[in-house]
């Protein structure tokens, strides 16, 4: 995969704006636009309050009443058409867009804008009926059937051709309608399926390998295929990671995951190019860190990022994590929360607990405060058929206000209250970032390196755990992809990234030399690019930069091992890099009990103006948080970062600056219980103008906007 950077994506957007992207009259069916040009830089200059709307499922007679009710609730955007392929192309080659043209005309007249979606998540039956070769196949050889969604193989040429045909026709027929402000690619790419093992996918796998390695001997050498007689003489012999009596080579398993996920991202780029033939409007995709795609690479297909989230009230921190991730994904652009539930999530066989009163408005306020431009619901009217009957909606299936209807009104009120503040301010640049790596995710899915009880079982859980640790301490932070630039940061935390590439190491070294502090967390550096064990040093190139020698990489889980870091003692668990330090490297954490006693598990080395910190093992047990908090506080201080405030659990402070240079904090209580937070001495309530003194008291699910000085 080629290097993708935040700076590169931002520069591309700036170049588009400078050159002037092609713009055609809305509603025109003139010649195609230049498919090579991205959409122009854009911002709606308002907050979006949106909902998914499915006119193909309900009587036309309901549309006018729906629109009037949307207006009364402050809904200003609808998203549509992502599941309507069979409505627009009921038989192959016969197109009818009248349902959507009619609705879009009415929406435009009412001042409600539209996000138009490509319908490729739910292909019509004519595409796959009688053609099992066009369907997704899992690792057990089971072929997915028409009847749900994501059943087709995007690797099959006939499927791709049909997808691009409907997208191009949609773009030509609907893409310049005056109601449309943006496009969404597909819907929740690979939410229900993972690797594709169809014949078409495996044929493309062999092409991918050939492009990557050029010659089969290079693959054999990189993967060490003489083990268990896995040696190959042609790329066509290399199997996909289908079910075997035991396990495939780790190199093969991880490579197949990367192939499939990169291929999906490239399919998204191809969708974008189909849209661009007739529309230059911004493009997004409703992503989620759980989905089986290459998230960073997929951003090349998008002009702004968006995501879906269905947290319960107890899972509110997931909203902060995803906002911090997708805000940084395409720098300089807004992000949207494209789907969330008004009261509870649900599908056949399960439903989540219902939101407490007030939580939805708190959720929306958090998204808007953290830089989100859009906050949207799934869905307007409860499904009367299908697989998601229990899911909440703004209106019930019998067209009455739902249990969440009043909460939507509260969101509209919160939006109207915050909108003038947010449009007059910009989010302050976070000084701390946590690294998210798609490659690391694939490797850890192949080889779960920490099996202790209570530790996150998924890679995203590890990253979210670190994010929450920083969030709960009251630091302003974000999450950056592996290939992102490190500009503007003072502290970088990279947990659980087994392979550290040359390019990442060079960027990190430059970041440190300029004064940054890099904390490389447990497992980082313990594997090579092709998911092999380094043979030159325990942590590969990272070890040389850190000025250490790794004596052992060993599992501490269940051994009772302990360590001391900066005066704090804790049990340790998971995999540990036990090290000795070279001259110029300081030991700051030592194993105090168990195997490897006396060796270092945390070191720091000054490089230029900054420091590289190696954290070789994770604290565990009762004093886990004490050790991690000490580590973060200490190195944040070394990097010149101060906490915004001593925030109790559940309170989030979002620092922003208005157009006059004044510091504005949005303080949110994401819990139902009352909370209080200490403030700078000079703090004024923006809405009342009153001085707040040294303490701010927050009722459950409330937000305060304050102006502060001296911070």
TrEMBL record:
Keyword annotations: Glycosidase, Hydrolase, Metal-binding, Signal, Zinc
GO cellular component terms, semicolon-separated: beta-galactosidase complex
EC number(s) on file: 3.2.1.23
Pfam families: Glyco_hydro_42, Glyco_hydro_42M
Signal peptide region: 1-35
Catalytic reaction(s) noted: Hydrolysis of terminal non-reducing beta-D-galactose residues in beta-D-galactosides
Domain Beta-galactosidase trimerisation: from-to ranges: 432-641
Domain Glycoside hydrolase family 42 N-terminal: residue ranges: 53-414
Record carries keyword Zinc: yes
EC main group: hydrolase
GO biological process: carbohydrate metabolic process
Gene Ontology MF, one: beta-galactosidase activity
InterPro entries for the chain: Beta_galactosidase_Trimer, Class_I_gatase-like, GH, Glyco_hydro_42, Glyco_hydro_42_N, Glyco_hydro_b, TAT_signal
Active site: 188, 339
PANTHER family recorded: BETA-GALACTOSIDASE GANA, BETA-GALACTOSIDASE YESZ
Family, similarity comment: Belongs to the glycosyl hydrolase 42 family.
UniProt name for this protein: Beta-galactosidase
Organism encoding this protein: Marisediminitalea aggregata
């Amino acid at each position: 995969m080629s290097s993708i950077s935040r700076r590169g994506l931002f520069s591309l957007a700036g170049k588009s704006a400078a050159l002037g992207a092609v713009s055609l009259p809305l509603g025109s069916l003139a010649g195609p636009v230049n498919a090579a040009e991205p959409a122009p830089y854009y911002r709606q200059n308002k907050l979006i309050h949106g909902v998914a709307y499915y006119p193909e499922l309900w009587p036309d007679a309901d549309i006018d009443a729906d629109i009037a009710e949307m207006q009364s609730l402050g809904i200003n955007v609808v998203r549509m058409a992502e599941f309507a392929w069979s409505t627009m192309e009921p038989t192959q080659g016969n197109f009818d867009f009248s349902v959507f043209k009619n609705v879009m005309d009415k929406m435009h007249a009412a001042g409600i804008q539209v996000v138009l979606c490509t319908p490729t998540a739910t292909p019509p039956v004519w595409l796959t009926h009688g053609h099992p070769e066009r369907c997704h196949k899992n690792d057990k050889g089971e072929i997915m059937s028409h009847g749900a969604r994501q059943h087709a193989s995007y690797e099959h040429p006939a499927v791709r051709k049909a997808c691009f045909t409907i997208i191009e026709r949609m773009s030509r027929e609907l893409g310049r309608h005056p109601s449309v402000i943006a496009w969404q690619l597909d819907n929740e790419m690979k939410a229900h399926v993972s690797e594709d093992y169809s014949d078409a996918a495996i044929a493309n796998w062999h092409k991918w390998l050939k492009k990557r390695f050029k010659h089969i001997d290079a693959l054999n050498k990189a993967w060490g295929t003489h083990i268990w007689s896995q040696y190959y003489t042609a790329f066509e012999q290399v199997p996909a990671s289908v079910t075997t009596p035991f396990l495939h080579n780790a190199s093969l398993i991880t490579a197949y995951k990367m192939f499939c996920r990169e291929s999906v991202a490239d399919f998204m780029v191809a969708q974008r190019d189909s849209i661009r033939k007739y529309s230059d409007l911004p493009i997004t995709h409703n992503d989620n860190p759980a989905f089986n795609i290459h998230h960073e690479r997929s951003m090349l297909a998008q002009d702004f990022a968006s995501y879906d989230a269905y947290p319960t009230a107890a899972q509110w921190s997931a909203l902060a994590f995803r906002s911090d991730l997708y805000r940084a994904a395409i720098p300089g652009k807004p992000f949207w929360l494209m789907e969330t539930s008004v009261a509870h999530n649900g599908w056949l066989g399960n439903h989540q607990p219902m939101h407490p009163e007030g939580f939805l408005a708190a959720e929306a306020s958090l998204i808007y405060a953290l830089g989100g431009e859009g906050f949207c619901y799934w869905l307007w009217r409860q499904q009367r058929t299908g697989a998601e009957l229990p899911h909440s909606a703004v209106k019930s299936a019998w067209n009455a206000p739902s249990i969440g209807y009043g909460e939507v009104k509260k969101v509209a009120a919160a939006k109207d209250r915050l909108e003038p503040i947010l449009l007059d301010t910009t989010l302050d640049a976070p000084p701390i970032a946590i690294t998210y790596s798609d490659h690391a995710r694939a490797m850890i899915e192949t080889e779960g390196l920490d099996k202790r009880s209570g530790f996150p079982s998924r890679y995203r859980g590890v990253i979210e755990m670190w994010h929450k640790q920083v969030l709960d301490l009251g630091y302003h932070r974000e999450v950056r992809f592996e290939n992102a630039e490190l500009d503007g940061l003072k502290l970088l935390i990279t947990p659980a990234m087994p392979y550290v590439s040359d390019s990442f190491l060079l960027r990190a070294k430059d970041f440190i030399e300029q004064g940054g502090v890099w904390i490389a967390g447990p497992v980082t550096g313990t594997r090579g690019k092709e998911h092999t064990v380094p043979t030159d040093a325990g942590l590969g190139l990272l070890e040389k930069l850190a000025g250490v020698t790794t004596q052992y990489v060993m599992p501490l889980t269940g051994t009772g091992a302990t360590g001391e870091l900066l005066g704090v003692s804790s049990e340790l668990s998971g995999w540990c890099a036990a090290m000795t330090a070279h001259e110029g490297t300081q030991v700051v954490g030592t194993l105090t009990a168990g195997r490897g006693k006396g060796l270092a598990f945390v070191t720091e080395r000054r490089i230029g103006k900054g420091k590289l910190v190696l954290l070789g093992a994770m604290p565990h047990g009762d004093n886990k948080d004490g050790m991690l908090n000490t580590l973060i506080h200490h190195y944040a201080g070394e990097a010149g970062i101060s906490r915004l405030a001593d925030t109790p659990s559940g309170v989030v402070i979002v620092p922003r600056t208005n157009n006059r240079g004044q510091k504005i904090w949005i303080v949110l209580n994401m819990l139902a219980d009352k909370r209080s937070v200490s403030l700078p001495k000079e703090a004024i309530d923006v809405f009342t103008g009153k001085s707040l003194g040294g303490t701010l008291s927050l009722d459950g699910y409330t937000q305060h906007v304050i102006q502060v000085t001296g911070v």
